[in-house]
Amino acid sequence: MQKFCPSHEPNIFRSTFAVIHSPLTHLGGAAFSTQMQASPFGLPAVILLSKAFDSGISAVDTSPYYGPSEIIIGKALSHPNMVSKYPRHTYFIATKVVGLKRISSIILPGSHAGSTTAPHLDLLYCHDVEFVSTEEMLEALEVLIQLKKEGVVHYIGISGYSPDLLLKRVKIVNEQQQSYNQIKAELVTGGVVVKSSPLAMGLLRLGGPFGNWHPAPKGLHETCAVKLAQWCETEKGKKLANIALKYAAGKMALMELDGGHTIMGPSLPVELEENMGVLESIMIDPTSHHRKGLRPVDRSKVLRLSGLFAEARAFIGPEWLDYSWDSPPTDWQEIKEVNRESMVEQE
Predict the structure, then answer these.
(1) pLDDT of residue 140
(2) Which long-range contacts (CB under 8 A, 24 or more apart) does 315-320 make?
(3) pTM above 0.85?
(4) Measuring CA to CA, how many Å separate 174 from each of 125, 144, 216?
(5) How does pLDDT run across 17-28, given as a tens digit for each residue?
């Protein structure tokens, strides 16, 4: 296993990034999407964000591809109660673009009353890089780099599904990488690793994800969201979602990722409280330096859960264990061609 070996600017980048980010997790904005919720605008975003910040979470990850997520989060952060309690400089916002399609509007909450901080994005990802060529990614990153020089964006990065692809491309861009659903031990040199969706986009919980958009095959969905989830509750007296969250956060710690972070996406305050309880159960015990909120993971506590993790993985069985679906899908080029022809007809 390789540890980080920063080069060039990442020494400064990593130290600053680590201070701003919570040591273990940050809030995922996909919870405010139409993929995850029937009525995302009805969620108590102000209350959720306030409780998250009170708990020690100081980073929010969102995307224009999460439906109204950016709008909901932006409005919540601009609420008078949030502005007075949490000025812009006290939290970290990350969002995404795909290729050169658009620049996010979530920077709007940056200029609050009484704050001298200019509107900005803390982190902007070039997202889903497996759907574009290396050349297209680099073209988009040139624009992001210019935005960084202008102070509109503080940090830039790349994100996607395949760790292998990220490892190749991060050699070109070594500021930040984000990989969802998967964790890989052979890490890049430089930058910070963010692991998102510890529940595999809702697959690792009883009943599975909302709606029918999830790319997991039917057999994998049945194995995880139904059979494994029921086994965890009946045989172990625990929720699969809680076990998965401990596994994801704990795995990062056992891999000795100094800059590793896990994104979790509760949509309700009660879910946040439950998630925080789960995470706190594997954190180091409070000291005078860590009195409340998020603390570093206690590796010994994670190791004591190794047996439970092994049983759950064994239950999944060889057919689906460590399964990865195709991203992009095998018919992606055909889909692109259909979309291109449709755009030409519209013009």
Answers:
(1) 83
(2) 315/227, 315/228, 315/231, 316/223, 316/224, 316/228, 317/223, 319/219, 319/223, 320/219, 320/220, 320/223, 320/224
(3) no
(4) 12, 14, 30
(5) 444 444 457 899
